Amino acid sequence: MKKYLEVAKILFKAQIVYRFDVAMTALATIGAVLFAWILWGAAFSGREAIGGYTFQTMLSYYVVSSFISSFEKSNGICFEVSERIRGGTFSKYMAIPANCCFWLLLCSLRKSCIILL
Questions:
Q1: By the 8 A CB rule, do 40 and 55 touch?
Q2: What pLDDT is recorded for position 116?
Q3: DSSP characters for 14-41?
Q4: Residue pair 73/111 in contact by the 8 Å Cβ criterion
Q5: Which residues have C-beta within 8 Å of that of residue 93, sequence separation ≥ 6?
Q6: What is the pLDDT of residue 117?
Q7: First vs last Cα of the chain: how many Å apart?
Q8: Nearest to 105 by CA among 113, 97, 116, 117
C-alpha cells in the first residue's frame, strides 16, 4: 500500500507543477501585453498617429501577433528533438510502430493548446 501512496504523491506533485506552469505562462502573457501597452503609450504620448497607426491599432496588432506567434513552436520542437537525440532517448520513438513526424506534430499541437488554456 505504501508504494501506491508514493505514486499518488508523485502524480499529485506533477499536477501541481503543471498547473503552476500554466498559471505562470498566463501571467507572463498578461505581463507582456501590459508592458507593450506602457511602451506604446509612451511612444504615442502627445501624438494621434505614428506612420498611419493609432495607439489602438498598434496594440491590436501586437496582441494578434503575440497570439499567432504562440502557435508557432517549430524552434522549440527542433530543440526538443535535438536534445532527445543527444541524450539518447529519441531512439525509443524509432522502435515503436508510429510515424515520428506525426508524433512531433501532435506534440506541437499539444503545446499550442496548453497555451490557450
A1: yes
A2: 53
A3: HHHHHHHHHHHHHHHHHHHHHHHHHHHH
A4: yes
A5: 84, 100, 103
A6: 52
A7: 35
A8: 113
Give CA–CA dist 25/45, Å, rounded: 30
Cα angle, residue 99 at apex, residues 93 and 105 outer, rounded to 5°: 95
Residue entry with cell 505614428: 50
- Sequence-distant (≥ 6) Cβ neighbours of residue 76 within 8 angstroms: 111
Q: The C-alpha cell of 98 is what? A: 508510429
Pick from 6-20, 30-44, 59-73, 87-101: least confident:
87-101
Predicted confidence at residue 42, as pLDDT, reads 92
Alpha-carbon span 83 to 75, nearest angstrom:
12
Task: Give the predicted TM-score (pTM) of the model.
Answer: 0.52
Residue with cell 494621434: 48
Over residues 24-81, the pLDDT tens digits come to 877 888 888 899 899 999 999 988 888 888 999 998 988 888 777 766 656 666 777 7
CA neighbor of 66 nearest in space, from 74, 54, 58: 58
